[in-house]
Fold each of these.
Amino acid sequence: MRKKVFFSSLLIFFTCSIFSQGVAATPEYIKELTSNWKGERFEDGRPKVSDALLKRIKNIQIEEAWGYLRSKGYHNQYDGEWKILHPDQVMSGRVLTAQYMPLRPDFKEVVKVQGGKEKRDTIGGSNSWPIEILEPGDVYVADGYGRIIDGTLIGSNLGNAIYTNSQNGVIFDGGVRDVAGLLNIEGFNGWYRGDDPSYLAEQMLTSINNPIRIGRAIVLPGDVVLANQHGVIFIPSHFVAELVISSEVVGLRDLFGFQRLREKTYTPGQIDTKWTDAIKADFLKWLKEYPNAQLPMTRKELDDYLKEHYN
């Protein structure tokens, strides 16, 4: 009898622990996940990378970001082979994550009950819950495990709601419907696996702002995503500032190298290998004369970076 009481108590304890986790991750858990970030945060705990950095990162090439992250030991942040609403456009933003799984009625009921406790709308579909909490500059990133038929996470109605709240777009490892309607939402963009006229069915939301997998990439809430026609890369928030300026300096190095090659000051072999001290000195002199208005960063940011990396 005592054993039965003990195991019943244990079951209740674990059940309560599961419920206490909620549909959405707590701010405390998100802060633990992103503890390397030392800056401002949203109320939900996600790092708030500045709008200025989100704008600047759009000019960074995927390969540059990929190389930087690999140099830091982060080898699983990129994924490719997407359908894109507007492939000629670049998107960046702060990630809000959502995970979907195949529908299981008993689990769906648990999610619905917990969503009600979190004061979420339990009348409509739970796929609207992540959309309701999007902030300006967010990108809604969803793990739909690649499902397209009956896995269409949004159509034009939810697409309009997403853009209204975030002024941004989506990255879905899954499907969308009503592409024609989505294309008509000015400013909205999306990376997705495929489109289908079917509605979302036999699929359910299981969590918001928890770690998810997008293809071969791992994504945490508050990461910054850079997405273009060549793929998507998810950048840990604490790396964004250094990645941006280091990539911008690489871009300036390239401009210097192209100019000196056209002038025939150096050979391709000299520019394409480790620079000599003389070429470095020439580059630093060239940077000092470079117009401030054309720099991608402030002169102070550039000077501080050069002091640390070129002295």
Amino acid sequence: MGPKLTRDHALFLDLDGTLLEFAPTAEEVAVPAGLGAMLRGLAAQRDGALAILSGRSLAQIDAVTAAPFPAGAEHGFVLRDAAGRIHHPVRQTANRAAWRAALEAAAAAHPGVRIEAKSASLVAHYRASPEAGPALGAMIGAMIAEAPEVERLAANMAWEIRPRGAGKGRALEWFMARPPFAGRVPVFVGDDVTDEEAIAAAAALGGHGLHVHRDFDGTPAAVLAWLGSALAPGRV
């Protein structure tokens, strides 16, 4: 279980697998009742020092949270600060169009595989066709072998081509250097390999990097109960 949350903590939260149960597609994910209100309460409790760090796009994050919180979208490629300003710390990939065409051709041969084009990265989702995962991973590895500006990211039932220099760990560090996060103790919660760098970054800054399966009971419900307890009367 996580630490007792106080007003001095800055909260950084992943979405899928952390606050939300997984579903075949992002559009099918069920948003827990009252999630937006709880997040608004937690943010207000610490003067706005709550950010969402997710692989989702900003629009998808906002649809889930029902409010434009500070966010590191697309694994930190798109950053929105507390004033609502958008920042792009790294550039888009050079071979995006060719890679997308190749991935969509591969998806056509594997029913259930879905290709998602984000603003800078490309994702091959194979949750509905798990047997296609190894072949897609090998294909992407070969495809980007001579493109040092990008990397292949293994996500939960997905492979992602993303620009180097982004990442949830860097996003957390970026927020911690700015108000209202600066001077607080960071607490990050995530569930996936893509979250490990943010878990490490929070710990390196003197805070808490928490994993849904290592520090809770492996379910978003446990994380939500822990977060909700911080809003109980008498808890600060």
Amino acid sequence: MGFDIQHLIELIPDINKAFYQTLYMIGISLAVAVVIGLPVGIILYITDKGLFMENRFIQNILGFAVNMIRSIPFIILLVALIPLTKAIVGTTIGPTAASVSLSVAAIPFFARIVETALREIDNGVIEAAIATGATPWMIIKDVLLLEAKSGIISGITLTIISLIGFSAMAGTVGGGGIGDLAIRFGYYRYDNTIMIATVIILIVLVQVIQLLGDFISKAVDKR
């Protein structure tokens, strides 16, 4: 089957549903990634050698856990987390279930980005804050997060784009969203119309998010 405009129009309700399911999955997993990944990234940085809360034990344990999760291919992680997903949401299919695996994958990914952004801060700024008697919490809140906010926003943008790709992959195991639509119609039914449409939607979505993320990142960059 070639590209058929009339057929595409008939599938608009399915495309809309899949698109909103994708946004739903990304929204949940991004929120979890930021809430958990941000402090994890901060801890990875401040507990490193030579920093004001140096703790090699915590740094090594946390770093190992982050690297371990990041080393597992997402499709394997989806399967491995089925018991956890079942325990949390009561089902293993649908966008809510897929959000569990997406969140677990996104947390270490975003944490490492945060850590990298913090490492770009000039050590002199931190030393100056310590010299003025700033507490560790004050340094984190008023120095680290303030200085690294542009890099963190860029990290959020990169995390969203990665989640779009992961969410499409989640469709292969009944996670819903654009990926699920592409598999059900484009692959199993050899429907080129829906395959092309889903690819275009994903490309446009990524481009819009990247442009918006770059704009915000530059806007908050005080350098």
